[in-house]
Amino acid sequence: QVQLVESGGGSVQTGGSLRLSCAASSSTYRLYSMAWFRQAPGKEREGVAAIYTGGTRTEYADSVKGRFTISVDNARNTLFLQMNSLKPEDTAMYYCAADGIGGGDPLRQDYNYWGQGTRVTVSS
What is the per-residue pLDDT across 60-69, written as a single tens digit (0 to 9) for each? Predict the structure, then answer.
């Protein structure tokens, strides 16, 4: 069983930045794929960014391209999400996920492991 613990959420104003972290209890390299999802009140869960931990391939939702950057530090078993130019519509609970199931679109597939989430609030 892999445990994922997110941190770094908070409240910022429009245009601000936050860096989310997700600490994994096992080797992130062996998890193959990891991702960040978010869910706003009353909305469906949305895949935001994904990374294949053995290389550099990343995927982003159109809504965050150019503003968010996903990265992984396999030496520290930690996943990151750098969020810049934040907008009120980025307000959501953000979840870390690991070990994708099915091998499809990493922003749409399910994952074996999920964190508890960290809240991000962006005010105008």
Answer: 999 999 999 9
